[in-house]
Amino acid sequence: MSEHKAKQQWTPELLDFHQELKDKNMGPLWASVFSAPQPKPRAIPYLWKKKLILEALDKAKDLLAVGTGSIDRRAIYLVNPGMKHLEPHGWGGATQTLYAAVQALNPGEIAPSHRHMTSALRFIMEGHGASGIVNGVKYHFEPGDYVITPEWCWHDHVNEGNETVLWMDCLDIPFTSALTSSFFELYPQEQQPVEFPVDYGTKRYAGGMVRPISDRKPSAAPLGRYTWDLTKQALDGQSELNPDPCDGFAVEYINPSTGKDANGRVGARMQKLPVQYKGKAHRHVHSSVFHVYKGSGYTVMNGVRFDWEEGDFFALPAWTWHEHVNTSETEEAFLFSTNDLPILEPFGFEREEAYRENVGYQEIKSVFEPDQSDVIAID
Question: What pLDDT is recorded for position 379?
Answer without folding.
Answer: 43
